[in-house]
Amino acid sequence: MASSCRALSANLRPLPTSSSARSLPHIQLTSRFFAVKTDFSSLRSNSNSKRFRFRRTEASMAEIVTPKSRGPVKVFDTEEDMAVSLAKYTADLANRISLERGSFTVVFSGGSLVKSLRKLVEQPYIDSVDWSKWHVFWVDERVVPKDHPDSNYLLAYTEFLSKVPIPSGNVYSVNDALSAEAAADDYETCLKHLVKTKTIDQSINSGFPKFDLMLMGMGPDGHIASLFPGHPLVHENEKWVTFIKDSPKPPPERISFTLPVINSSANIALVVAGAGKANPVYIALSDVSNSDVLPVQLVQPEGELTWFLDKEAASKL
Ligand SMILES: O=C1O[C@H](COP(=O)(O)O)[C@@H](O)[C@H](O)[C@H]1O
Fold first, then answer.
1. 214-245: per-residue pLDDT in tens?
2. Is any atom of ligand 1 closer than 6 Å to the C-beta of 112?
3. Residues 29-50, buried b or exposed e (16+ Cβ, 10 A)?
4. For 91, what's the count of Cα atoms within 13 Å in the CB-facing half-sphere?
5. Which of 8, 60, 201, 271 is most deeply packed, by most CB within 10 A?
6. For residue range 77-86, what is the model confidence (pLDDT) as tens digits?
7. Known EC number(s) (predicted)?
8. If we measure between CA atoms, which residue out of 208, 209, 189 comes closest to residue 200?
9. Residue 168: which of 184, 181, 157 has the closest Cα?
10. Closest ligand 1 atom to 247 CA
11. Domain ranges for the chain
């Protein structure tokens, strides 16, 4: 098992050298993706909208309580305000857990979440966070080379990892030399090794790895990680890491943590911005009934779930 993890560390390319890789644009949602997005038109609401209790806690932020909120739901006037608060939340949590446990395990998604972490690589956090304690993982990854524009690793590297002094041996990227199936197995083997050596905690309740923090985005169709609405992978409850070859959002081949791993987390931040995501936010947090449960509705961690929303994403609440 150890050899698999060593292979993964060796597989990490801390400094993509090609300048074309560094200047690649971020992930674009294509028209093909929008063509398959969930039809929300048949929703039945049990309530009038805009009825949830808003409590303004800061000039630019309100906390709301909704029928299905399981923890703090923070709504910000702008995405910029949201990014400022997300940086403080992440830095405070990381420093507290690093002091308590001597390490901090954090899981990144891809997509817009990574840009929303931009304030964390600035002052005061660049100096106040103990980056040497961080161990970084991915909740999902596309099966592409690490210098490909669709790579979640490349996105995290460009926007975040290249700007902070996390030791490269603490960054556990997915092996991009393998098929989807083999890469998922390889990553799961790596996680098992790191649980055994106590780098990653284990949930006493579920037996699955218990990460200190998952920083996750959500797609406009309500997908999280690479778990898409209506796809059988959503129901995988034995594997830790699984793979998909027919993702409705390109690229088609990906690997993903399964829901039991996601839900064993000590903390999850669900970070969502933009009017295009207001429908799944409404479904996940209001008392509306929907027959086809969205993956985001299944995020129910044994620890704390905190929503970070901008005004547009919360506009239907
Ligand atoms: O494909 C993916 O999409 C989701 C959502 O991305 P966003 O750009 O709409 O925020 C992302 O969380 C996931 O990691 C990624 O692989």
1. 999 999 999 999 999 999 999 999 999 999 99
2. yes
3. eeeebeeebbebeeeeeeeeee
4. 20
5. 271
6. 999 999 999 9
7. 3.1.1.31
8. 209
9. 157
10. 1
11. 2-6+54-310
Is the pLDDT confidence value at 28 over 90?
no
CATH of the structural domain 2-6+54-310, one choice from 3.40.50.1360, 3.60.110.10, 3.40.50.2000, 3.40.50.300: 3.40.50.1360
Q: What are the pLDDT digits (tens) for 242-275?
A: 999 999 999 999 999 999 999 999 999 999 999 9
pTM: 0.87
Parallel, antiparallel, or unpaired: how do β-strands 134-138 and 140-142 relate?
Answer: unpaired
Q: Which of 34, 79, 109 to mutate to test the pocket of ligand 1 (most atoms within 8 A of CB)?
A: 109
Ligand 1 pocket residue status of 140, Cβ below 6 Å: yes
